[in-house]
Specification:
The protein is mostly helical. 43% of the residues lie in helices and 9% in strands. Strands 1-2 form a two-stranded antiparallel ribbon. The protein is globular and about 40 Å long. InterPro entries: GrpB/CoaE, NT_sf.
């Protein structure tokens, strides 16, 4: 299967957590004291899940204005700010849902979907899984969206 426009879905790679840990260390070293917390998020953080082989991190800071001052240093490391609020909740759902998600991703790519459309095409399933996981925890639904 040829994957169009640079989108590639890879089988789970056991090196992804280590890559995330190294990236987190690099961020902390580049701008000491800036981050309150940094987490490995997204599909590469879910053991056994096929994913685009891109390590996503979510970093919390005390004040966004402090982060803006370090944008150059972060860009030099290859990091870019992103205002996406959607994170994968598949760490908390049954394995069958992870299989559904991986199949959906491969189907989207096989259809020739581009990067922006790829992200939006996943949103309905992510919304379903997120709503179910939150409901099981007694939490209300939250908006789930994806933008390029």
């Amino acid at each position: 299967m040829t994957e169009p426009r640079g989108i590639h879905i890879a089988d789970d790679d056991p090196s992804w957590p280590g890559q995330a840990a190294a990236a987190i260390e690099a961020l902390r070293a580049a701008v000491p004291g800036l981050f309150v917390e940094i987490e490995h998020i997204g599909s590469t953080a879910v053991p056994g899940l096929a994913a685009k082989p891109v390590i996503d991190l979510m970093a919390a800071v005390h004040d966004l204005t402090h982060a803006a001052r370090h944008q150059g240093a972060l860009a030099d490391l290859g990091f870019r700010p992103h205002d996406n609020r959607m994170t994968d909740r598949l760490l908390y759902v049954p394995e069958a849902d992870g299989v559904r998600y991986a199949q959906l991703k491969r189907t989207i790519v096989a259809a020739g979907t581009g990067p922006g459309e790829y992200a939006r095409a996943k949103t309905a399933l992510v919304r379903e899984l997120t709503d179910r996981a939150r409901s099981q925890l007694g939490l209300p639904p939250v908006p789930v969206w994806e933008k390029p």
